[in-house]
Design brief:
35% helix, 11% strand, alpha/beta
Length: 128
């Protein structure tokens, strides 16, 4: 309950990942070039290179104007609701998509979200 229906053009051309967990899915799909901003805690070599080229997502606790500009500057923002179930941030972000992969019971359940993310890039067959 409380979710808002949103519409996106597929395949998305630009995105932001608000969690490092999502970056593994994006790596597996081979669409790193469509991620404009990543979490500062990203560790894989590709993401470290991106961070060195000004692709770091401004913290929500940092420069609020820059953070809002970064979020608005992409087709889709992959994010999740709070652990308390509060989805206000996802719902108020017009291009925000709830991906609760870190809130699943285990790794097998979390791994299924690659199929969900693949749909935004029109890569469902690759996610199987």
């Amino acid at each position: 309950t409380g979710y808002i229906r949103k519409y996106f053009g597929v395949p998305v051309q630009s995105s932001a990942a608000m969690s490092t967990v999502l970056l593994a899915f994006i790596d597996s799909l081979g669409v790193q070039d469509r991620v404009k901003f990543v979490d500062s805690y990203a560790t894989a070599p590709c993401w470290q290179k991106a961070l060195a080229c000004d692709a770091e997502m401004e913290s929500s606790y940092g420069n609020a104007t820059l953070h809002a500009e970064q979020l608005a500057g992409v087709d889709v923002v992959f994010m999740s609701c709070g652990t308390d179930g509060d989805c206000t941030k996802v719902n108020t972000q017009k291009n925000g998509v709830h991906v609760p992969s870190t809130q699943e019971a285990g790794p097998v359940e979390s791994a299924e979200y690659i199929k969900y993310i693949a749909a935004f890039f029109n890569l469902e067959p690759k996610a199987k």
